[in-house]
Amino acid sequence: MKEPYYKAYEKRYQAVFSAGAKRWGHSPDDEVLYNTLKSWVEENNLQGKRIIEYACGEGACGVILSELGCIYHGVDISPSAIEKTKKLLEKYPNATVEVLDMVKESVKGKYDAALDCMGFHMLVTDKDRELYLKNAYSALKENSPMLFFRESYRKDGTYHGIVISVEEWAQITGEDYKTLQSRQVKNSHDGGVVEVLVPLLPARARDKNGYIKEFENIGFKVEKFIEMDVSTAIPHSATIYVRKGKIK
Ligand SMILES: C[S@@+](CC[C@H](N)C(=O)[O-])C[C@H]1O[C@@H](n2cnc3c(N)ncnc32)[C@H](O)[C@@H]1O
């Protein structure tokens, strides 16, 4: 995979949308997602507060957080996903989005909270993961929470070495990230299914200690680590609640 990361995501969204599929990722109707965000917003008094969502995709969390009364800003590397999210959020005056590479770019201003829903695990190299977490950390006000929802997780057997490239990761995992695979996705018109041909995209699972170490290295305090039930979105995942501690 020599081409830049973002092209693979952009291509996948384009394939999904041009096949007439409703969406690829999370829906605002996902009950577990909705309940998790609702509790998180209430516990942290985030109504009326500024929340940044990294890797926002097609805007499911943007809808939920706007309905819950938050001031929302979503960023994603894929222009097609951002276009779709922009339309979806049109009716919420406090919601904005922008195309941004969360590894290489930082957002303007400071936020009261940050969210990542299946975004962090898509970064496989140690360097990209660290750069992203540092960006997210510095976008937050002191003592602000960040929520990582449904990140790829294994109890054990994860790779503990340093990964320096996607090519190396493909060798380590033995996964094929090139061949197109058939996936069934819901149709936007009648709710039936359409076939989409897309390659598997690289993702990196961690065990509990692996995640905790990564967050603590940046300065985040890990407050809660929840193993999630199997879902249609991902078989094995964890939801992790962290908070910005003292500036490093
Ligand atoms: C598994 S999808 C999750 C999307 C959405 N959060 C959801 O749950 O439906 C991963 C998302 O990460 C985005 N992404 C990957 N690398 C990124 C980067 N470097 N900067 C910003 N977004 C990125 C992709 O475009 C994609 O929308």
- The CATH class label is Alpha Beta
Question: What is the percent of helical residues?
Answer: 25-40%
Q: What is the number of strand segments?
A: 9
Strand order of the largest sheet: 3-2-1-4-5-9-8
The major pleated sheet works out as:
7 strands, mixed
Task: Report on this structure.
This protein has 248 residues and is an alpha/beta fold. It has a single domain, classed as Vaccinia Virus protein VP39 (Rossmann fold, 3-Layer(aba) Sandwich). It has seven helices and nine strands; from the N terminus they run ααβαβαββαβαββαββ. It has helices at residues 5-18, 31-43, 60-67, 79-88, 126-139, 166-173, 208-218, and strands at residues 50-54, 71-76, 95-99, 113-117, 145-152, 181-186, 193-198, 220-227, 237-244. The protein is globular and about 45 Å long. S-adenosylmethionine (SAM) binds at residues 5, 9, 25-26, 55-58, 60, 76-78, 81, 101-103, 117-119, 122.
Give short descriptive properties of this protein:
alpha/beta; two-stranded antiparallel ribbon; 9 strands; globular; Rossmann fold; 248 residues; binds S-adenosylmethionine; single chain; 7-stranded mixed beta sheet
Summarize the structure.
It is built from 7 helices and 9 strands; from the N terminus they run ααβαβαββαβαββαββ.
Summarize the SSE layout with pairings:
Layout: H1 5-18, H2 31-43, E1 50-54, H3 60-67, E2 71-76, H4 79-88, E3 95-99, E4 113-117, H5 126-139, E5 145-152, H6 166-173, E6 181-186, E7 193-198, H7 208-218, E8 220-227, E9 237-244
Parallel strand pairs: 1-2, 1-4, 2-3, 4-5
Antiparallel strand pairs: 5-9, 6-7, 8-9
